[in-house]
Amino acid sequence: MFNGLSKTYSLVSVVEEHLHMLLGGGMTVKVLVSEDCPDSERYGIYNDERIEWVKVTNRFEGKQIHWMDYSQPTGSVHPAFFQEAEAISVSLYEAFRDVEVVFLHDILYQGWHLVHNVAVRQVQVRLPRLRFLAMTHSSPASRPRRMDWPLSARFLPLPNTTYLYPAESGLPALAGQYQVPLELCKAIPNSLNLQGGMSEDVQKLGQLTDLFSPDLLAVYPGRLTTGKQLNKAAALLGAIGSVSGKRVKMIFCDFPSMDIEPAVYKRIIRSEGERFGLGEAELVFTSDLGWPDGFPHRGVMDLFTLSNLFVCTSYSESFGLIVLEAASRGNMLVLNQAVPALEELGNRLQAYFMRWHARGFGVDTRETYHPSEEAYLREHAERITGLMADNPVIQAKTITRQQYNPKWIWENRLMPLVTNR
């Protein structure tokens, strides 16, 4: 029952995310708002042409209905209350007649919406097939011992309803408010749409490849030159996936080099990654997905916000600014210790070191691994996996990306309720 769509009202942003989920899931959606909600305030997903925008009456006998806060459980309502509820119910009935599921946001909870609460109940009697998802966004109210109708509507169950709350911890209190079985109460966490605030390039990339589900996501920007030893980074990611059983992904934000034909080096990188267990879909070159001359810097920084591991296998570096950029976005750093500049910077940043071929000051080093390169990679892969698992900051970052993004919440929490599966 929005009267406006200002983002200062946090529920506007929550509903915005739910609309992204519903439309992204292929649902046919109506949005019901007060007739006093200005069309001029619609933005973003609220302007999506797939949405049927419905204005619910807010007039009785030609005058605007002024909502009153009936949060108390006892007492009386103003004289025109039931007539206003009836007028609203007529409007709601027309909107509900051809829908299967009605998603209510705070309508059963808020004292300000008692008139809409009662109107919904009137429509439910006429349309008993309707299923309701009733979301409560604030701490559930304690059930009072004494209640008077219609103020008691804030504590009475609504037929054919599943009750929703953002956190599991609040479900017993939610069940107590409406005196319903706990199994009718479900948690739908608020989502964090990280990608929605990122550059258009990252949003486009996210439509082409999965950026959210990998347990370990590594991003490596660089030229397609053998000097960057990108094949070694792919090999390490493959080893990490093999020894840990975790989902891994490497995204190379690559651009051409004069040193070697790009297609040739890409085949080498893929071959090396596959040799150590990196699947075809787990290795992505942005040049293959629409950015042949490099991925924009802002996009790289956004990808570092999503990733949790940065591997720099470079043969030579004078400083390594990209290391600072990855570190600034909370990535675990794995650096080539044989490169003096990377060792210097890595020591200050408490990076994890491995050794690959390198060029120092007038000296080229060649690494030999005993008993084998595979054993070396697997040994370090186990250590890296363990360190990342023990790092609470990296774990928090990873869980936020994986399990609080809109797609995960839709597929695992909301879609089963909407589709009744």
Automatic annotation (TrEMBL):
Name of the protein: Glycosyltransferase
SUPFAM superfamilies in UniProt: UDP-Glycosyltransferase/glycogen phosphorylase
